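Bumping with the actual sequence this time:
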Amino acid sequence: MELSITDNAIKRFKANLSNNPDAKGLRISIKPTGCNGYSYVLDYASDISNDDQVMTFSDVSVVVDNESLQLIDGTEIDFIEEGFNQVFKFTNPNATGECGCGESFSI
């Protein structure tokens, strides 16, 4: 299983984690929701379970549970800044569709 994270996203992850020194890393997960079935969730990893995969990108620990990792295997995560808009962009090769706003996807 694999993820790729751009330099821009890593910089943002580091900035976010610096505001929460108790976090063991950044957690990426998937939840069923939205108009297309699934949504990406970014949160701080306060604990790491046996079912989690931990990947390190430039000193940033990224924690993903096994079920979510299967849905986002091969995904590239980027951080885009356009004017006042700032957003994490997920390019998921497993997605068969996305909603118009990019908040949810289907597989």
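The tokens above came from a reply further down the thread. Strands lie at 3-5, 26-33, 37-44, 52-57, 60-65, 75-82, 85-91, 97-98, 104-106.
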